[in-house]
Amino acid sequence: MKRKGILGGTFDPFHNGHMNIAYESLYRLKLDEIIFMPAGSPPHKSDKVITSPEIRYDMIKQSITGEEKFKVSRYEIDKKGYSYTYKTLEYINGVEKNTELFFITGVDCLMYIDEWKNPSKIFELSKVVVLNRPGYNKADIMKKKNEVESKYKHNIIFIDIPLLDISSTQIRKKVSKHEEIKYLVPKEVYAIIKNNKLYI
Question: Domains in the chain, please, with CATH?
Answer without folding.
Answer: 2-165 (3.40.50.620)
